[in-house]
Amino acid sequence: MSEQVPRSPFSRRSLLRAGGGLAATTALLGTGAVFAAPASAAVPASKRFDLTQPSYDEFRSKILHESHHVMQGFAFDNQNVRIFIVNARNGGTGDDLCVTQVNFSGEIQGSMHLNNAGHGVSIGVEPVGTDSYIWMECDSDGPTSTGRGTALARFKFVNGGTPSVKKFLTGSKTITCATDPINKRIAVRRNEGGKMFYSVYPLASAAAGNFSSPLAHFAQPALSTVPVTFQGYTIYGQYLYTLDGEGHADPADINSYVTCIDMNSGTVKSRALTRAGKSLVFREPEGLGIYRSLAGETRLYMGFGSRSSMENINRYANLFYKNVLID
């Protein structure tokens, strides 16, 4: 679970427009990186997912390396056909995280720990040859389950190894990221002056430590007329997708929504209720990710945590996807 998104929409003046610069909160600039707002949003046009279309199962009820905590964010290494899912460590402080690699049947292929990292709402993956580099929050602001990252970490995934971490945007507040594996971009979400903002970069530029020329920088728009519980995000092409909602024991109480946001305007394009996995026990929305199948089908994946019963301490990972793109 993540923060509550406020009821009131952000001022349109806080959204980047062509020909009008944003008074960027450069005071939040992390050491070792350069940040500046662009003169205009410049994400190339693309199709978007039709959020009203049905969802399909990838896998259900799979236990991760850390069995007692619900899944959080996840991401795909499209090049090497891998899935990485993050959750809290059993017996940890709450901000100690574990990244588990699974295959497309949900079976564990390896794991890696990053302590005092944060919450894991969203992560990214960057393929480098046959290696997978994980992008995620680090340097939590507190050793509890409410701790959130203050920098981005990039490290090579090595099963059972100790991460060799390179840090970016240090000194940030509530920072996370997500990657577009098809267009090789990374979105960074962080608190800037009390509001959540997204910045989008070419992944290669970010890996080189260059955050000086974002393709887009915009405030998170209001997702609903009432406060919602933010549960993850991802990007594909021109659009950013968010997931919000809460866990419920009764399927009749499902309130999980996927929202599509145009990154070139910072405005909501569409929003729809999803009932994917509605029969799961205590189904809780947890993360979004993008993958293109070997057959060339582009998919928007949604993650949900679940239990076998309300009394069982184990938590399970579940993935579902949508696959219809529209103009």
Automatic annotation (TrEMBL):
Superkingdom of the source species: Bacteria
Pfam families membership: Phage_RBD_prop
Domain P68 RBP/TagC-like beta-propeller: 70-319
Protein name as it appears in the record: P68 RBP/TagC-like beta-propeller domain-containing protein
Organism: Amycolatopsis roodepoortensis
